[in-house]
From TrEMBL, chain A:
The chain crosses the membrane at residues 256-283, 303-330, 350-374. Keywords: Cell membrane, Membrane, Transmembrane, Transmembrane helix. It is a multi-pass membrane protein. This is ABC transporter permease. It is found in: Cell membrane.
Automatic annotation (TrEMBL), chain B:
Residues 7-237 form the ABC transporter domain. Keywords: ATP-binding, Nucleotide-binding, Transport. The keyword Nucleotidyltransferase does not apply. It comes from Bowmanella yangjiangensis. InterPro entries: AAA+_ATPase, ABC_transporter-like_ATP-bd, ABC_transporter-like_CS, ABC_transpr_LolD-like, MacB-like_ATP-bd, P-loop_NTPase. Gene3D superfamilies: P-loop containing nucleotide triphosphate hydrolases (3.40.50.300). This is ABC transporter ATP-binding protein. Coiled coil: none annotated. One of its GO terms (molecular function) is ATP binding. The keyword Transport applies.
Length: 385, 237
């Protein structure tokens, strides 16, 4: 028998209380795990944005296009390093409900600007040679079980094909991955030139321009220079960092961070009061037993540690079960919502954060009763009966 | 201090503050307890029996005087040192047993051994021996809720002796038991005193219980007011 055995026996002596308290902690950590994973998924675009990457949109809004000529003009601005551009395609696979994020991009520069995307050189070479080729992100390929060489009919709910219909037959020439698992690979890209040549509207425009600067310190200066150079034109621009753009885009839904903080704070505050109260009552019930332990020669600091261990153990029992449940819930949701929330994962950072909160919860809820036991006077305790 | 003396109290004072008033329990208490004594302390409620037991057990500190145990003063020890001293030297037996309800008999007996450096196997051997000594070897796995008052007190005695302390302090050890069970417990204490040489100090209200001791000291208003001779004790027993 060790002290830990005593702690365990004390913790499990009232099974119903243990169950109810652990259940409250379980719920709090289930909420924390699921909601934090959701926040991570929504913020992954912001987190993963390169510091020196800027996006140029039409000032009216991002659904309005920009003249193709802007690409060369932007390239010539001082401080600009690499430039690429893209056009929204609005694709779906087989049926409209099966949305696939598809963009027509400049094949020569796209993967240079998005350097966090990893493409095998031979796959990229094959893609460059095949105008109807498409590069598919790893996550999207996995969801649809697409392999290299597959011919996939992709339809647009915006554009029409010159040969009639709204479907483009594309060939999977490569599957790109990412250097960081948080980077979104739930989309695909095909040739801008092929898109322009085959779609019925034609035109000489791009959806948006993406560029990198020589140094993140130049971002503001370059952004201002771009917007100034197109001021008073038919298509004025709004240039911002990719991070700022993604953040603003997410915040259209509402202040997600504040909502999530509120939910998690309420959940934790409730269990803090509940578990803290339970621990205080549990230790008060054991006043006589603590006095006996002290009489036998157990030192006050040792009893203090035992009570803190008990409260931490309680927090970890409920917390780990809750986190485990959150892992299963997030895993299931991730499968169901792979297209909308491709980065919905309960990653190691959330696990570490949760473990930290469990320890903190255990310490905060245990400190008052542990201190009470530390200060307990044997004679007073026995006199109380 | 003679080698025969285990405990010596010299001019011990104990006072409490109650509001503005100071209540004196002992003013100038002197006593000597020899090794191998089985001493009963009797007295009316409020005479200071429990306070004396607390001082002897190192759970309370005197406000004046000296308490010498085995040649060393304990009255100035810190709370931590007193806890160590209690673990090494004293076995406690309480009126209401004070066993841990969530531990079985064997685990209750093992508790004081957690404060030693004995291995798990050595602890188990000691626990088995202690439970055999009190005749409860077959009840090792029983929970306190499954045992009678007499059995609970036997477990408490096993817990008190398992770490082989020099002194057993008993606070009304038979106060919650019927006559027959009380006698069995007192005979067990006599056995520990005679056969194993344990020094025992027992506080009791019960003259029949006191007759099992080798000496009885009568305490009243913080003073010893009488002493029964060993011969008398033997005759009475």
């Amino acid at each position: 028998m060790k002290d830990l055995y005593l702690v365990y026996k004390n913790l499990t002596r009232k099974k119903l209380r243990l169950f109810l308290t652990s259940f409250a902690i379980f719920i709090a950590f289930l909420i924390f795990g699921a909601v934090t994973a959701l926040q991570g998924a929504l913020n992954s675009g912001v987190e993963m944005s390169a510091d020196n990457r800027l996006v140029v949109f039409n000032k009216i809004n991002f659904t309005q296009s920009l003249p193709y000529a802007y690409v060369n003009k932007v390239s010539g601005i001082e401080g600009v390093n690499q430039v690429t551009f893209a056009n929204w395609f609005g694709g779906y696979y087989q049926e409209p409900a099966n949305q696939v994020v598809t963009m027509a991009v400049d094949p020569d520069s796209y993967f240079e600007v998005y350097s966090e995307l990893v493409v095998a050189p031979e796959q990229k070479a094959n893609w460059l040679q095949n105008q109807a080729g498409v590069m598919v992100g790893e996550r999207l390929a996995k969801v649809n079980n697409w392999q290299i060489g597959d011919r996939i009919p992709v339809s647009s709910n915006i554009f029409s094909n010159k040969n009639g219909g709204q479907t483009w037959d594309l060939v999977v020439e490569g599957i790109f991955t990412a250097s960081d698992p948080q980077v979104d690979t739930g989309y695909m890209v095909f040739h801008y030139k092929y898109f322009m040549e085959t779609q019925s509207w034609g035109g000489d425009y791009v959806g948006w321009i993406v560029l990198t600067t020589d140094d993140p310190a130049l971002n503001e200066q370059v952004a201002n220079a771009i917007d100034e150079s197109f001021a008073n034109s038919q298509a004025e621009t709004d240039t911002s960092t990719e991070k700022a753009f993604n953040k603003a885009f997410i915040e259209q839904i509402g202040n997600i961070g504040l909502i999530i903080f509120g939910v998690v704070f309420m959940a934790f505050f409730t269990i803090l009061v509940l578990v803290g109260n339970t621990m205080v009552l549990a230790i008060r019930e054991r006043t006589g037993e603590i006095a006996v332990l002290k009489t036998l020669g157990f030192s006050s600091p040792r009893i203090f540690r035992m009570i803190l261990t008990e409260s931490c153990l309680l927090a970890f029992i409920g917390g780990l079960l809750g986190l485990g449940a959150a892992y299963l819930v997030v895993g299931a949701l991730s499968q169901m919502m792979a297209r909308f929330l491709p980065n919905l994962v309960l990653g190691p950072d959330i696990v570490l954060q949760a473990l930290g909160y469990m320890l903190l919860l255990g310490l905060i809820t245990g400190i008052a009763p542990a201190y009470q036991a530390l200060r307990l006077n044997i004679i007073t305790a026995f006199a109380r009966g | 201090m003679s080698d025969d003396n285990l405990f010596e109290l010299k001019a011990v004072a104990k006072r409490f503050k109650k509001g503005k008033e100071t209540i004196s329990i002992f003013d100038d208490l002197n006593m000597t307890i020899k090794r191998g004594d089985f001493l009963a302390i009797m007295g009316p409620s409020g005479s200071g029996k429990t306070t004396l037991l607390n001082l002897l057990g190192g759970v309370d500190q005197p406000t004046g005087g000296e308490i010498v145990f085995d040649g060393a003063r304990i009255d100035g020890l810190s709370e931590g040192d007193l806890a160590k001293w209690r673990a090494n030297n004293i076995g406690f037996i309480f009126q209401f047993y004070n066993l841990m309800p969530m531990l079985n008999a064997a685990k209750n007996v093992e508790l004081p051994l957690l404060l030693t450096s004995l291995s798990s196997k050595q602890r188990q051997q000691r626990v088995d021996t202690a439970l055999q000594l009190v005749g409860l070897a077959d009840r090792a796995k029983h929970m306190p809720s499954e045992m009678s008052g007499g059995q609970l007190q036997r477990v408490a005695i096993a817990r008190a002796v398992v770490s082989d302390p020099k002194l057993l302090l008993c606070d009304e050890p038979t106060g919650d038991l019927d006559r027959q069970t009380a006698d069995e417990i007192l005979e067990m204490l006599q056995l520990l005193n005679r056969e194993f040489g344990k020094t025992i100090i027992m506080v009791t209200h019960d003259p029949a219980a006191a007759r099992h001791a080798t000496h009885t000291l009568h305490l009243d208003k913080g003073q010893f007011v009488g002493k029964d001779e060993p011969e008398l004790q033997e005759k009475s027993a």
